[in-house]
Amino acid sequence: MNIRFEPVPRNEFGDFKKDVKEIFAIGVIEHFGMPDDGEPVPDRDVDEALYHPKADVFYVYQDNRQVGGVVLTIDKETHRNKMDLFYIYPDTGRNTSGLKNR
Predict the structure, then answer these.
(1) Among 54, 84, 82, residue whose Cα is nearest residue 70
(2) Average of per-residue pLDDT values in the chain
(3) Of 24, 54, 71, 98, which has the fewest Cβ atoms less than 10 A away?
(4) Could you give the angle at which helices 43-50 and 13-32 cross, rounded to 10 degrees?
């Protein structure tokens, strides 16, 4: 198995954000129910990670199939880094036929 990260071009942040919101919403709704405002994952929460000045945004690939994404905050000065968002498509472990090829 080969895992790699590919930078997400800024013009694809909208698609990345859509994936994050859809996948995170599955867990939020399953465990907590639908919020009263009808928005399980607020835009501002995703935007905060995506557009952070030190954020690096990547697609995650397994054997040349896109299986998810990650947002890392990398501080090149202090070397204190963190993962702000990480998602894997729900059917990655069972059936990868519907995943995006790149």
Answers:
(1) 84
(2) 86
(3) 98
(4) 130
- Convert the pLDDT of each residue in 24-54 to its tens digit: 888 888 887 777 777 888 899 999 999 999 9
User: 25-64 b/e with 16+ CB inside 10 Å = b?
Assistant: eeeeeeeeeeeeeeebbeeeebeebbeeeeeebbbbbbee
Say how far apart CA 50 and CA 5 lie, in whole Å. Answer: 16
Question: Which of 25, 30, 100, 34 lies closest to 67 in space, CA to CA?
Answer: 100
pTM: 0.80
Shortest CA distance to 47 belongs to which of 72, 13, 74?
A: 13
